[in-house]
Design a protein that fits this description.
With about 240 residues, this protein is α/β, with parallel strands linked by helices. The protein contains 5 helices and 9 strands; from the N terminus they run βαβαββββαβαβαβ. The strands form 4 sheets. It has a 3-stranded parallel β-sheet with strand order 1-2-9, covered by helices on one side. The protein is globular, with a radius of gyration of 21 Å. The relative contact order is 0.21.
Length: about 240
């Protein structure tokens, strides 16, 4: 029984961090346990309902946090397989090179990271491929060096946004396409997984075409027999020995 409950790796949370880690470790053969305090987001027509999602907050946590003055604060967060990526707008930017160094802010100094942008650049490239990011290199004047192009072309602008982009360009500005993780094939709309609906940012994707951690990472990881997912499993604390293990 003890062996049955032994795992080499236990990952708490199945969002962008935990889900991606599980995907990367799944082929290793190690016994991996994923613990998720929520459950799968139910696929239902309310996924695309502005009233259900925004007004009623059907999929949001009902817990109450406290602000610095002790007043109640609703966090507008989500606990489910895939974490908050089930509801994000799929915008997937890289941090800028200078973000890894010491930065002085109004309220103080943000210390430098122990890692540099160059250390993480290969992993950004792998992540963009995994999350099927659409974009166009060279448009964004602030983007750092990249070792590979985006794996998919930029998502075309809606007509009004295209007009704004052209107007900004004429004014000497440099508008650019937001890098988006969506499973969209504009050249073959009949077979495209994404149908370019009007409910993406803030909504769960009913057709599983948003590049979220559940679709891109957790579900593929679970195809490996050595990976186990336990939902509705709230982790309240970690107990360690005096050595810290």
């Amino acid at each position: 029984m003890a062996q049955a409950n032994h795992y080499d790796v236990i990952i708490i949370g199945t969002g962008a961090g935990g889900g991606t880690l599980a995907y990367a470790l799944a082929p290793s053969g190690k016994r991996i346990l994923l613990l998720e305090r929520g459950d799968y987001v139910r696929r239902e027509k309310e996924n695309w309902s502005p009233r259900a999602v925004n007004v009623e907050g059907k999929y949001q946590s009902k817990e109450v946090w406290r602000d610095q003055d002790g007043k109640p604060l609703h966090p507008h967060t989500n606990y489910n397989v895939g974490g908050n990526t089930k509801f994000y707008g799929a915008a997937l930017f890289r941090l800028r090179r200078e973000d890894f160094g010491e930065i002085k802010h109004y309220d103080g100094v943000s210390p430098a990271w122990p890692l540099s942008y160059d250390d993480l650049e290969p992993y950004y490239t792998r992540a963009e491929q995994l999350y099927q990011v659409h974009g166009r290199r060279g448009e964004d004047p602030t983007e750092p060096h990249s070792s590979a192009p985006y794996p998919f072309p930029a998502v075309s602008h809606e007509p009004r946004i295209q007009q704004l982009s052209e107007d900004f360009t004429r004014l000497g500005l440099q508008p650019f396409h937001t890098p988006l993780g969506v499973m969209l094939d504009e050249q073959h709309p009949h077979s495209s997984r994404c149908i370019r609906c009007e409910t993406c940012d803030g909504f769960p994707c009913l057709v599983s075409a948003k590049s979220d951690a559940q679709v891109c990472c957790v579900d593929p990881a679970l195809q490996h027999a050595n990976v186990t997912l336990l939902t509705n499993a709230y982790v309240s604390r970690l107990e360690t020995s005096p050595s810290g293990r």
